[in-house]
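Lecture notes, unit on protein representations.

Consider one protein chain, 599 amino acids long.
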Amino acid sequence: MKKFSLFFLLMLFIAFFLLSGCSKTADVSQTGQTGEEEKISFVPGEILVDFRDNVTENEIQNFRKKYNLGELTLNSKYSEDEKLMRVKVDDSEIGSLVETLSHDSLVEYAEPDYIYYAYSALPDDPLYKYQWHMDQIKVRDAWDINTGEGVIVAVIDTGVAYLNYEKFHRAEDLEHTLFTEGYDFINDRAQACDDNSHGTHVAGTIAQTTYNGKGVVGISYNCKIMPLKVLSAQGFGSLADIADAVKYAADHHAKVINMSLGGPYNSKILASACTYAYQKGVTIVCAAGNSSSTRIGYPAAHPECIAVSAVRYDKEITFYSNKGKNIDIAAPGGDLNVDQNGDGKKDGVLQNTIGRMNPSTDDYYLFQGTSMASPHVAGVAAMIASLGVTNPAAVEQILKDSANKNVPKDLDTGYGAGIVDARSAVMHAGLLRGFVKLLLGLFLLAGLFYVFQNKYNIKTAPSSPLFFIGNIIGSSGLFFLPFFGITVLYSQIICAGFPQWEIAFFGAGYHMTPLFYSALFPLILSLLLGRIPLINKLIIGFNIGVAGHLLYGALSNDATMIWIPPVVDKIWLLLNCGVCLVLAWFIIILSNSRKIKES
């Protein structure tokens, strides 16, 4: 028993070390603007120089001095014969240097270090190649794990072009985006249509229809958008309407709120509304403001809100973004003054929206602002919530722990925890937490059988694969499949432990209900199937797996139960964990008694 306990404690230590330290090691992929066959992205800060095969070392050194280059290094040991070398340069010089070096007599070719992708991995949305901001947050890598299923994101803004109503129409690249009932607080009606363009652009970043062969992509493209109009066609609105919209979102099962709006005034009314939503388990993401100030605006400055600053293509904080110590995290906001990636378009954030104050038309527009940065964070927050982490404090912590800290300047200059990283965030929320749940389930399985073998002298062991299959179903599901690039149908069920299936059935707004986070289903299955040979092994494993999942819920801060008060919910989870173990215990006793009688 002592050796087993030490082994388990070591495994737990490793698991929680991974949970706390993943942000330091997760960012291993190369970055650059994502494109298609005709516009491929490249490694920033480097170019490749393919010299003539007969060039000498002296000629290379003279070449380096001639163009004032850094050290030229062979790409690999296999590049020596062809003299293929790489050199570090400033991003802003890549285009001009490639052109200059290509004409030198010593050079066969000079090119950016282009990145190629498996064709199947690229979205078929034709304008995706101009969405450098999506590649900056590694959203495509995150899609293998989650796309925001089951989560409602409230967009509190100028409305959204989501339906055909009177003079309004649905923007073309929101054709398959999911919407839930919203409200227009300006005109007091259910149809929260956009007559400005700002809100539709914001909603597109979060959930633009993706893989539809049209337009652009969105981050959590399978979430549901709740359109809440609080700003007029001119782009301004009242404090009271915004506060009402925040409460409306919280009362209608939104798990994420995006507010790309603000002002300099600290309103107690709005602060109270944000506190209300936060206490109901809503993650609130806000734009920090565009006044180039070291003081951020409200509601972003409220402690319940995540304040988002804006960066451009080269990851520098933009000229307009508010900064300061109260920034929580940064995200792509764009800079329409430059074309740093050389794609022929200014480096704004590209989404589909209506014409400026013209809801009869729509097109694809480049915007800039912390208003554009905020929905990037809200979209990633929706992914986290879809994976079962719905407590706003836990969501914020994951966003910060997983943020990309490889930025050009010190984080305290306005980056907060770093630049939001979708890939790393879903790894924190799904893969690593799934590992811990599985570990707890297996520990309880081994521990229970150890007790029976030693204390009760019942000679049985969890040797059948059915024990382990049931345990995995109950505790963690096949959480690791997306990590290996394996995409499956009904992934929210197959890749999650049984209690978390509720998100697939009812949405994240009903996460951690007493219906699923209890011993109810293990009890029903035990009564119906517990006496059937072979199947009872599956039920034993399942009951113990659910116990492990409930134990994780009691020990973690990932989510809070609904309908049960704080603190009491932890007691509820622990008690039901115990009941699941007792049910497994009874089935083992009955199964063993039957074997004794038969022998």
